[in-house]
Write a structure and sequence with these properties.
Rossmann fold; cytoplasm; 6-stranded mixed sheet; glucose-6-phosphate isomerase activity; alpha/beta; single chain; 5-stranded parallel sheet
């Protein structure tokens, strides 16, 4: 396929369009009766069981999707990614988050240079620093151990590390390693987030990690200046060097801020923000909380999936299968959303992280060559842990619009509970729902079944479930650091596969720029109005009215305020 050709102009795409008519003549009730089909749609890799038999697809559909992947040159694009070629063409960058978790002896090149030794140089520095902080060898300005960490970052500098932290908080080994320590994440520039993060913390025992590649991110740097003031006002300006470190590549601005450049931990242009949890962005705060050995297991889990993604044939390749099925659901069956439903409370921050990984990557309107697309890309990702979600939005999933679902279950609970004389354990109760919900979506319930149950006639239509609603199930053996790394990498690569098929750049994010640019104009106006009393000008009537109302209603804000920090 020539680079200028859109995938929708290829024969495999057209064949899949025609194939939809055949699929529409089937129902999952019938497809699920085909045992050999179901058997062919289950696979295991490194302890993880994937079951995609409840997708509205046949083995013929899969073969057509593999042909589509060939037409889109997906294998070639995977190879180019792993070889360090600059596949992020709009920013002229390699895409090498796989190098962040590669074994020490691996060779992954970018511009002809093996980047793995640099990665491990930073990892070794994190190991050494985190061990010194955790052991009490590195102390704060008053000689007290630093047992509390606040990581400041936004977007990928926050959502990924928060997901991993939340998943580890209740894991037995991680609990022991984190005993007596706290890790908090400050992302929102809203002062309420600042107040919540510093409440109950003592500056003497707090270490702040500022995460900003350029050290210029507006929200992050304002939050960093706020916590610098919090530390300085309590301990003096000289305490900043002992209580603040950085994850950044801009050593000049780090030093100007008051942080010792020796306490800056690097990452690289070939690491996208939403793919950065395996860099110092995530590894540093997580190692301070849990110790580097736990985090290294997380990296090894991700690396295991990386190698599987790179080398496994597509028929047995978990991220490729998931990516192709998502393309099928979005581009051919017309399903614009996807629900991520982990049946584990420890994974409560997984869906918010994948929201960014997926929607920032694939929410594009033009091809990688800049050609407007005649088809939609990406899907609306959302989710909530089961069974909470069942009492929230499952009504719509069962009887409203069709939303393909990812059910994620765990064989062994991190925190098992058993009660004498109960029918099942708490975890078995949870998993009963994990196993039942996909069948409820697939089979539904017919009017005939309801009539046999003597349901009142006027309620039959209300209690009918159409079924034929696709889902897939992922069953993890447990939820330790290694498994968490596996799950992360599966979804990262799944998103890449979708983008490779659609012919878009899944590794830039120009869509976030315009709003930030307009916000800078508003910031200047607010400054001019507060300080000089200037009227609001240069905006449309609606925006001018909103800003003017805001300024008038908050006229009690002093024009030249003295420093005021949150008080809770």
């Amino acid at each position: 396929m020539a680079s200028s050709t859109l995938i929708c102009d290829t024969e495999p795409w057209k064949e899949l369009r025609a194939h939809v008519e055949d699929i529409n003549k089937t129902h999952l009730r019938d497809l699920m009766n085909d045992t050999s089909r179901c058997q062919s749609m289950m696979m295991e890799f490194d302890g993880i069981l994937l079951d995609y038999s409840r997708q509205r697809a046949t083995t013929g559909t899969l073969n057509k999707l593999f042909s589509l992947a060939e037409a889109a040159r997906v294998k070639e694009k995977i190879n180019r990614m792993f070889n360090g070629e600059r596949i992020n063409s709009t920013e002229n960058r390699s895409v090498l988050h796989v190098a962040l978790r590669a074994p020490r002896d691996a060779v992954i090149n970018s511009d002809g240079k093996n980047v793995v030794p640099e990665v491990w140089q930073v990892l070794d520095k994190i190991r050494d620093f985190s061990e010194r902080v955790r052991s009490g060898a590195w102390v704060g300005a008053t000689g007290k151990a630093l047992k509390d960490v606040v990581a400041i970052g936004i977007g990928g500098s926050f959502l990924g590390p928060l997901f991993v932290h939340t998943a580890l908080q209740t894991e037995a080994e991680a609990i022991e390693c984190a005993r007596g320590r706290q890790l908090r994440f400050l992302a929102n520039v809203d002062p309420i987030d600042i107040a919540r993060n510093i409440t109950g913390l003592n500056p003497e025992t707090t270490l702040v990690v500022v995460v900003s590649k350029t050290f210029t991110t507006a929200e992050t740097m304002l939050n960093a200046r706020t916590l610098r003031e919090w530390i300085s006002s309590a301990l003096g300006p000289q305490a900043v060097a002992k209580h603040m470190v950085a994850v950044s590549t801009n050593l000049k601005l780090v030093e100007q801020f008051g942080i010792d450049p020796n306490n800056a931990f690097a990452f690289w242009d070939w690491v996208g923000g939403r793919y950065s949890v395996c860099s110092a962005v995530g590894v540093l705060p997580l190692s301070l909380q849990y110790g580097f050995p736990i985090v290294e297991k997380f990296l090894k889990g991700a690396s295991s999936v990386d190698q599987h993604f790179y080398s496994a044939p597509f028929e047995k390749n978990v991220p490729v299968l998931l990516g192709l099925l998502s393309v099928w659901n979005v581009s051919f069956l017309g399903y614009s959303a996807r629900a991520i439903l982990p049946y584990s409370q420890a994974l409560e921050k997984f869906a918010p992280h994948i929201q960014q990984v997926s929607m920032e990557s694939n929410g594009k309107g033009v091809s990688i060559d800049g050609v407007p697309l005649p088809y939609e890309t990406g899907e609306i990702d959302f989710g909530e842990p089961g069974t909470n979600g069942q009492h929230s939005f499952y009504q719509l999933i069962h009887q409203g619009r069709v939303i393909p679902c990812d059910f994620i279950g765990v064989v062994k609970s991190q925190q098992p509970v058993y009660l004498k004389d109960e029918v099942v354990s708490n975890h078995d109760e949870l998993m009963s729902n994990f196993f039942a919900q996909p069948d409820a979506l697939a089979y539904g319930k017919t009017p005939e079944q309801l009539q046999k149950e003597n349901v009142a006639e006027h309620l039959v239509s209300h209690k009918t479930f159409s079924g034929n609603r696709p889902s897939l199930s992922i069953l993890l053996p447990s939820l330790n650091a290694y498994n968490i790394g596996q799950l992360l990498a599966i979804y990262e690569h799944r998103v890449a596969v979708q983008g490779f098929v659609w012919g878009i750049n899944s590794f830039d994010q120009w869509g976030v720029e315009l709003g930030k640019s307009l916000a800078s104009q508003v910031r200047k106006q607010l400054h001019a109005s507060r300080k000089k009393g200037e009227s609001v000008e240069g905006f449309n009537f609606s925006t001018k009215t909103l800003i003017t109302t805001y300024l008038e209603a908050s006229a009690d804000v002093p024009s030249d305020p003295s420093t005021l920090l949150p008080k809770i």
